[in-house]
Amino acid sequence: MTVATDLEPRRAPAIGDALDRYHGPLVSSVSVVLFILVWQVAAARGWINARYTSSPSQVLAAAFDIARHDDFLHHAWVSFSEFSLGFVAAFLVGLPLGFALGTSRRLRLFIEPPMMALYTAPRLTLLPILIIWLGIGTASKVAVVFLGAVFPIIVNAMAGVREGDPRLLQTARAFGASRLDTVIKVLLPGALPAVLLGVRLAIGRGVLSVVVGEMFVSEAGIGHQIMNYGEAMQVGHLMVYAFAISLFGYALAVLVRLTEDRVRSWRPQP
C-alpha cells in the first residue's frame, strides 16, 4: 500500500503532461474525421447534391485518377516555384523595411500612407496591370504573391520594433552600441514573435495570391487546374487540387507556429 501511494504522485504529472500534449492534435483529428463522415453520409443520403459538393469517396477516386492521368507534380512545382520566389522576395524586402519604419518616425510618415493605401487595395484589381507589365508568365504570379505577402511582414515587423522594451534600448545606447548592433541584438530578438506572426499571415495571403493569379492568367499550376476542372464541373478533381494547396499552406503555417512556440519559450515569463 505504501509503495502504491508513493508512486502515484510521480505518475500523475507524466500522465497529465501526455494528455496536455496530445489533447489538441486529438481533438483536431476527431473533428476532421467527423466532418468527412458527415460529408459522406449527407452525400449518400441525398441531403446535399453530390454533383456540386462531391463526396469523400468521389474525391478519393478523383485523386487516383489524377495520379494516373494528370501531371500533378508539374502543376504543383509551378505553383510552389511561383509562391517561393514571391514569398522570399517579400520577406527580404518586408523585414528590413518594417524595421526601418519602426525605428524612423520621418520615414514612417513619408512611406506609411501610400503603403497602407496599396495594402488595402485588393490584389485582384492590380492583376490586369501586372499582366500588362509582366505578361502571363511566372513573373506576374510572383509579383502577385509578393504584393500579398510583403505587407503583413512589414506591418508586424514595424509593430514589433515599436513595442520593444525601451529600457533595453537605453541600456544598449548607454554602453555605446552602434545602430546596427542595437537592431541585431536588441530590436530583432524582441520583435521576433511579431515578425513570425506576420510571416504566418503572409503565408496565407501568398498561397491565396498564387492560386488566384493562376486561375485567371496561367498555363499551368494548381490554380490553373482548379479553374479548368471547375469549368468542366468535375468537382471531385477540383477538390483534390483545393485540398492539396490547403494542406501545403497549413503545413507551412504549422511550421511557423512551432517556431513561434520555441521563440516564446525563450522569453522570460513575467
Verbal overview:
It is a single chain. The chain has 11 helices and no strands. The chain has helices at 2-45, 50-53, 56-69, 72-103, 105-120, 123-134, 138-162, 166-174, 179-216, 222-231, 235-266. It has 2 domains: 2-48; 68-266, MetI-like fold. The chain starts with a helix and ends with a helix. By secondary structure, it is an all-alpha fold.
* Strand residues, percent: under 5%
Largest sheet properties: none
Helix- and strand-based class? mainly alpha
Task: Let me know the CATH homologous superfamily of the largest domain.
Answer: MetI-like
Kindly state the mean pLDDT as a whole number?
Answer: 77
Fraction of residues in H or I helices: over 70%
Taking Cα atoms only, what radius of gyration do you get, to the nearest Å? 24 Å
Task: Count helical runs.
Answer: 11
Shape: globular
Tell me the distance between the termini: 42 Å
CATH topology of the largest domain: MetI-like fold
List how many beta strands DSSP finds.
Answer: 0
Instruction: Give the low-confidence spans.
Output: 1-8
CATH class of the largest domain: Mainly Alpha
- Integer count of domains: 2
CATH arch. level architecture of the largest domain: Orthogonal Bundle
Could you give the order of the helices and strands? HHHHHHHHHHH
